[in-house]
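Record filed below.
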Amino acid sequence: MRKDVVTAILAVAVLTVLLGIAYPLFITGVAQVTFPGNANGQQIKQHGRLVGSKLLAQVYGEPALDRKGTPILTSTGAPTYNPDPRYFQPRPSATSPVYNAAATTFSNLGPNSKATLAEFQTNVQGYLSLEAPYNPGLTVRRIPVDAVTTSASGVDPDISQANAAIQARRVAAVRHLPLAVVERLIQDNTDGRTLGVLGEPGVNVVKLNLALDQRSRTHLASVTRP
């Protein structure tokens, strides 16, 4: 009995060191040497400051406030946001708070659920109120599916090309940029199909918005230059 207990304890200790410490450290070291960008979460830095990740959507807006200036919260107590019209908006998020990379999740609503219908209607109205003023004739039928549905993670940074094309008119108008310039930035920040055949092309909102800010600063400098 004592021999079996000692053997079990030694096995646990050895396997913990090998598989719980040595192996993870080895794999981490290999990853840092062979593809450090992916291993570190594809971080995006500007002037040495971390501003986001190519893999994670983020909020582009301001906290929504009621008439008393009090933050408007969801049923779970998370803050809500008003989208900033200067930026492309990622697809809706089911995390709490929205785009919470520490607790990714999906809505888990069934196709026949009344809650699903209510969520879609809310998202559709929000999309129309933001985009319709810049896209005359925009109707529910023309809204891309990804614009009103959440992703499996809730932090997907990509939107469809159709969604980006609709938002481009708003962004161009608000930023006083030629539409062609914004459309070119969309093309520059569109990822193709995986291996050329899997999935659909996606527009990375995080990279696109950073490129927009850079282009706007350049455009403003050229306009104000004496």
Notes: The chain has two domains: 2-40, 49-224. The first helix runs from residue 2 to 34. The mean pLDDT is 87.
